[in-house]
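Re: [ENG-882] Designed sequences occasionally contain unexpected residues at chain ends

Forwarding the minimal case from QA. Structure tokens:
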């Protein structure tokens, strides 16, 4: 019987435990999955020591980047992305880091093709955005990244105007804004310039329809939450753990 789990902070809302528990039940497997809600990423090593038969972990906010120094090895794609969401614990107890978010996002996004033009606005520059940027670059999208503070690679929310919105037909929310329990929050963008040609993709999946999605849909845009992405990345994580 193998044990798997999720490390993060304030993860009571997480989809992963329910998804894997149901999957193991359907397969008549004795494997289990649990949440490790930790206030500090340093506690990862305590979990590794204390939990028997622990074979793999998923990693979520806010540890996708800060977990990297604790790993013994990193998959090439995960290294390029610069963020980890899956850890395999091998037979020698070594921790190997992977990123399956890029796989999940790519699979979920393709279901909405074609998009009018390959131009995208990415909201947020944290660990969640890294896999998204990786996929968009691989798909030859022209990308405008938005953050609260301006940098060489990003513009700010106040820079978003009619021209930028009308020229970028894919808008992806990589911030936690709108996630349960703060479901009234949303990224501060000019939604009034969205059209039926836009796709508003929210990585959040709880609630199923965020304020970002509702405000985008009210302008005629197609919308998606992050549930399909999560299902795809979760299945890929399991394949890695079982390999």
């Amino acid at each position: 019987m193998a044990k798997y789990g999720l490390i993060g902070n304030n993860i009571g809302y997480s989809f992963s435990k329910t998804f894997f528990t149901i999957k193991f039940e359907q397969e008549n497997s004795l494997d289990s999955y649990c949440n490790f809600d930790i206030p500090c990423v340093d506690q990862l090593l305590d979990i590794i020591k204390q939990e028997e038969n622990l074979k793999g972990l998923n990693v979520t906010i806010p540890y996708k980047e800060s977990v990297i120094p604790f790993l013994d090895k990193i998959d090439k794609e995960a290294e390029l992305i610069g963020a980890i969401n899956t850890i395999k614990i091998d037979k020698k107890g070594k921790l190997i880091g992977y990123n399956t978010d890029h796989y999940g996002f790519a699979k979920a996004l393709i279901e909405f093709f074609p998009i009018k033009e390959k131009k995208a606005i990415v909201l947020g520059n944290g660990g969640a955005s890294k896999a998204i940027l990786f996929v968009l670059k691989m798909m030859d999208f022209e990308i405008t990244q938005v953050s609260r503070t301006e940098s060489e690679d990003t513009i700010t929310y106040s820079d978003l105007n009619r021209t930028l919105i009308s020229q970028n037909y894919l808008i992806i929310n990589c911030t936690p804004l709108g996630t349960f329990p703060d479901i009234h929050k949303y990224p501060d963008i000019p939604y009034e310039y969205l059209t039926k040609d836009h796709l508003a993709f929210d990585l959040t999946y709880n609630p199923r329809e965020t304020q970002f999605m509702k405000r985008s849909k009210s302008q005629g845009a197609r919308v998606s939450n992050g549930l399909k992405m999560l299902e795809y990345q979760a299945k890929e994580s399991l394949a890695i753990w079982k390999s």
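QA comment: On inspection the terminal residues look reasonable. The helical segments are 16-26, 44-50, 76-81, 101-110, 127-138, 162-167, 211-217, 227-242. Proposing we downgrade this to a documentation issue.
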